[in-house]
Amino acid sequence: MTSFSPSAARRLPPVVNDPIRAYAPGSAERASLKARLAAMEAECPDIPVVIGGKEIRSGERMQAVSPHKHGHVTATWHKATADDVRAAIADGQRAWREWSETPWEARAAVFLKAADLLAGPWRDTLNAATMLGQSKTVFQSEIDAACEMVDFFRFNAHFAQELYHEQPVSPPGMWNQSEYRALEGFVYAVTPFNFTAIGGNLCGAPAMMGNTVLWKPAATQMLSAWYTLQLLHEAGLPKGVINFLPGDPAMISEIALSHPDLAGVHFTGSTGVFNAMWKTIGQNMGKYRSYPRIVGETGGKDFIIAHPSADVQAFAVAVVRGAYEYQGQKCSAASRIYVPKSLWPEVRDRVVAMIKDIRVGDVNDFRNFMGAVIDQKAFDRISGYLADAKQHAKILAGGGCDGAKGWFVEPTLVQTEDPGYRLLCEEIFGPVLTAYVYDDAKWSETLQLVDRTSPYALTGAVFAQDRAAVAEANVALRHAAGNYYVNDKCTGAVVGQQPFGGARASGTNDKAGSKLNLLRWVSARTIKETFVPPHDYTYPFMREA
Ligand code: NAD
Question: Which end of the chain is more exposed for a tag (fewer CB within 10 A), N or C?
Fold first, then answer.
């Protein structure tokens, strides 16, 4: 296949967001998913390292467990060795020669097929893997592992098409072209536990643009990552375009980040890990063949602020959904709220009543609104914050945790009078929400407080019926969030509708699921062709008269 295919006249099918299924009692989709959950709970795949399509089992085996039933092993997986990492990089270079020359519409077709497989016959498998392995409820899994991943694959193909069609002007006598080449080298994708779709996208977006990818999934997302890789292979992704390296992140990163062919890093995870990777890249600058593209979406300390004119019930619902869905383990989860004194008693009582109504437990029981937090480390970290709150603030609801069977933490509402209290500033990544009550007269000052309280700027929301208040907040909070909501919760961004990413310590803001992100994975070549080149080196001004 060659890079100059007659592709300009081709158009991909129109793109729409994948509809969310309801899984209502009695529905066929619910019965089908329940059956798949039961079948997969009885299985325990032995997940290998995958290089060039070859499965390698190093023998150093780890276990993946269900967070809500941590005695239950969902899969075993093999840690990559240092030799595996080097072999994966070499194999990626082999695959790159063909894949980077494959016409874009052929690459897009792979991902469109993956999207259709996932929307159809693979849906239950990816949903069940995400529920069992990451403790998502059926709804949280459906909007992540099914809808969002389908949307990433379809919309990225659509955005790639738009990008490839962006061409410079050509005055008479010449033809100017932009050729959007793959990066020269490999992209290192390091993915978090909390979204199956992010795993698929951090590999999929660079691969869509003709790159080959070294994928290091999070240990706690292993089961759904494994099925994502198989889905892409079933859709026709050539072996070696994405090589799969479960294992020790520090060891794998040391080799990948010091390799001369490192062309890019596509990371989502905590700010500290990303900063360390960036530093390593800086130290290795003399070694690279090109300047690596560094894309990272990191932590958050997301806020919701209510104006005295806010609709109290809408605010309370946004707070509960925003803070507690997926156990507060979304980068976008609400973790600090600012409420005027006049509304506080009503807001507090409604939020506390909803918290008391929330069921927490095994996600196989569809009545539960929350599952467990991801692992012992997260459980201990969140428990530490709860202990701090018991000592230094007021716990209005929740506050308990029980790690005996699963890592369960109650949805918790904390109130503090100290605007600099650490629970208002630090990312907790659990179902703990802290409220600060402000004087109604201090709306403008409170907006400033929201803006400067944490180093992050990922998501945020304002609730107000008063249009002037909305306008003031929009300006005051311009740099406080990369995804900003008016009268809506601060979670639930949809691909193609709300491109996602934050600024400040929340990342490079390259907006996952948008053309801006795809731009990072290409290196443009400008081609000028002159049809009839001059044959005389002199210019008219050089003549005497
Ligand atoms: P994490 O930083 O612990 O892990 C992310 C990835 O980095 C994993 O694959 C992990 O194995 C790897 N890693 C860990 N140590 C490493 C090292 N020394 N070198 C290289 N790689 C290393 O994050 P997590 O717990 O999986 O995810 C939660 C974090 O991700 C939160 O901070 C959350 O805000 C953030 N997040 C951000 C977004 C966003 O779009 N901004 C989206 C999802 C999650």
Answer: C
Contact between 313 and 350 under an 8 Å Cβ cutoff? The reply is yes
Alpha helices, H only, 488-529: 515-519
| 462 and 470 Cβ atoms separated by less than 8 Å | yes
**Residues enclosing ligand 1, CB less than 6 A?**
190-195, 198, 216, 218, 249-250, 253, 268-270, 273, 276-277, 297-300, 331, 427, 429, 458, 500, 502, 506-507
Task: State percent of the chain over pLDDT 70.
Answer: 98
| Position in ligand 1 atom list of the atom nearest CA 191 | 9
Side chain identity, residue 480:
A
The catalytic position among 142, 148, 297, 427 is 297
Separation between Cα atoms, residue 78 and residue 258, nearest integer Å: 23
The answer to whether 430 and 373 have CB atoms below 8 angstroms apart is yes
User: How far is ligand 1, taken at its centre, from the CA of residue 412, in Å?
Assistant: 24
In the CATH scheme, what is the homologous superfamily, with its name and number, of domain 32-298+507-528?
Aldehyde Dehydrogenase; Chain A, domain 1 (3.40.605.10)
Pocket test for ligand 1, best of 258, 273, 483 (most atoms within 8 A of CB): 273
Q: Indicate if 297 belongs to the active site.
A: yes
Kindly report, residue by residue over 339-385, the tens digit of the pLDDT.
999 999 999 999 999 999 999 999 999 999 999 999 999 999 999 99
Whether 32-298+507-528 shares its CATH topology with 302-486 is answered no
The distance of Cα 408 from the centroid of its chain, to the nearest Å, equals 24
Nearest to 336 by CA among 259, 438, 266: 438
**pLDDT score recorded for residue 432:** 98
Superfamily of domain 302-486: Aldehyde Dehydrogenase; Chain A, domain 2 (3.40.309.10)
Ligand 1 centroid to Cα of residue 443, in Å, is 35
Structure tokens that stand for 240 in this block? 């070696």
Distance 267 CA to ligand 1 centre (A): 8
pTM for the predicted model, two decimal places: 0.97
Structure confidence at residue 494 (pLDDT): 98
- The catalytically annotated residue of 147, 203, 331, 401 is 331
Ligand 1: which of 203, 252, 270 to mutate, most ligand atoms within 8 Å of CB? Answer: 270
What is the CA(134)–ligand 1 centre distance, in A? 14
| Whether residue 331 lies in the annotated active site | yes
Using N-to-C axis directions, what is the helix angle for 196-208 and 222-234, rounded to 10°?
Answer: 40
Measured in Å, residue 128 CA sits from the centre of ligand 1 at 22
- What is the model's pLDDT at position 8? 53
Q: Which atom of ligand 1 is nearest to the CA of 192?
A: 26
What average pLDDT score do residues 206-233 get? 98
CB atoms within 10 A of CB 294: 18
Report the greatest alpha carbon distance in the chain. 97
DSSP SS3 for 199:
helix
Beta bridge partners of 380: none
pLDDT tens column, 515-534 = 999 999 999 999 999 999 99
Domain boundaries, given as residue ranges, for the chain: 32-298+507-528, 302-486
